[in-house]
Amino acid sequence: MRIFLALFIVMTISTFVGAAEVAVGQRLVEANCSRCHAIGLEGASPLAKAPPFRAVVKRYPVENLEEALVEGIVTGHNEMPEFTFDPDQALAIIAYLNSLKVAK
After folding, report:
1. Which positions ≥6 away from 47 have C-beta within 8 Å?
2. Are 35 and 53 in contact (CB under 8 A)?
3. How does pLDDT run across 68-104, given as a tens digit for each residue?
4. How many angstroms from the chain centroid is the CA of residue 14?
5. Residue 24 maps to which CATH number?
6. For residue 29, what are the contacts with CB-CB under 8 A and spacing of at least 6?
7. Helices (H), the chain
8. How many domains does the chain have?
9. Angle, helix 2-32 to helix 87-102, in steps of 10 degrees
10. Which residue, among 32, 49, 29, 31, has the nearest Cα to 41 in the 3D structure?
11. For 87, how many CA atoms within 13 A lie in the half-sphere containing its CB?
């Protein structure tokens, strides 16, 4: 019985921590990315050539973005500014992007 209780507590805490990390990531992309990109499950991007994040996560493994988020994302076009995040912020952004993959 204690083992089941311990597993339940661990799973509950993990779910809460995961949800909190996703929420932090969502706030970060809202503040830094939503000016150009659609960051949610619906809607068009404000900048037509900026792909919606829900499409990006289907095309690219978001875990590969961790280093770029920390070292600075630079793209080949001038419209996108360079962004840098600390490692915890990068992980939160990746958690949020992953949440877009599993949602339908």
Report:
1. 35, 36, 37, 79
2. no
3. 888 877 665 667 777 788 999 999 999 999 999 865 5
4. 18
5. 1.10.760.10
6. 37, 39, 53, 93, 96, 97
7. 2-32, 53-59, 65-71, 87-102
8. 1
9. 100
10. 29
11. 0
What's the domain range around 35? 2-102
Contacts of 52 (CB under 8 A, 6+ apart): 37, 38, 39, 43, 44, 45
Task: Residue count of the chain, please give it.
Answer: 104
Contacts of residue 43, defined as CB under 8 A and 6 or more positions apart, other chains included, come to 52
How many C-beta atoms lie closer than 10 Å to residue 93's C-beta? 27
Are the beta carbons of 35 and 46 closer than 8 angstroms? yes
Identify the residue whose tokens are 């204690």.
Answer: 2
Residue with tokens 């995961």: 18
Rounded to two decimals, the pTM is: 0.76
- pLDDT confidence bin for 28, thresholds 50/70/90: very high
